[in-house]
Amino acid sequence: MTTPLRDRATRLILAFALASMIVLPRAALADSQLDKMHAKLAAFVIDKMEKLGGSRIIYKVDGDALRESVVTDLRDDVYKALHDGHIAFSNLAIRDGGVDVKIADAKARDQLARKLAAAADGLPSHAISVTDGGDGAVRLAPTDAASAARLHELVEESIAMIEQRLKDAGIKLVSAVPEGTDRIRIFLPGVTDPEPITAIFARRVKVSLRQVDVSMPPEQAQSGKPPEGTEVLLGFKDKRPYLVAKESTLDGEDISDAAPSFAPGTKDPVVSFRFNGRGTRRFAHLTEENIGKPIAIALDDTVISAPVIREPITGGSVQISGNFTLEEANSVAMQLRAGSLPGHLTLVEQQVVQPGVKP
Length: 359
Fold this sequence. Notes:
Number of strands: 18
Strand order of the largest sheet: 11-10-16-15-9-12
């Protein structure tokens, strides 16, 4: 006998996994050690602020955009579970912060519940509630605790991105710390003009996947006139030219996450990233149509990798290499996430703090 969903445990876990993914370097230390290190850095930076003056900037993370993104991903993953399980369904839709679907067969509803439960293990930030609405209707939604955990994760992710972007800009003495549930406070000792700093975060990183044109050597296109609808971009490290389509097949909005990792076997640093539901479908179609052809992955019109498609990639997870150091892989992953970050940053306050004034 199948137990009705409303009589089953209502909290399930939904996984969003990356192939061969490792945690970011900032998570390599134990949480307590990391907290102590951040506390020491924050105290040091504030002391410098009092002596030198500087800038204080506050950003707000867009929690509404995060919730919308999480529910959209949930809808896409529910669709995939139903499709892969050959489960008949209807009326799959996003409504009021959750996902509604109708599954007439009780055994099929139980099968969906088992699939979602088996898809992950021990990720409280991805917990969902499952409610049986009667007559085959099922509602799935992130729990309040999961939403709070995801927002906390996004704030931490944004802090990591802020630190990396500032480091890439040559600014090393900085403290970025959470303030409340959805704000980030940044202290910059000695920086008396915050405008160039806020300009760094006002610009979104442009992420694109471009088809490579092999109709002529890229060097010829670079020195002459490239075919219509194409342009020449340079490589991230090798600076070699690539002849690519101007139109992007996929972009940063199609990426849901990215992280540095290590290639199996060689253990060379690589970048792993995952598409959202729409991106997964579009990338699967792209790879099916272009087997044997290269595809360029570009950041701000610089090609970071141009792998040849060997087979259709339908799972939504991609791993790219480019002779990266671990630091470069981390930086590229940060930029990929910054280009797709659902909780983008909104400037709340920027203030110049004079020397001798407590920040």
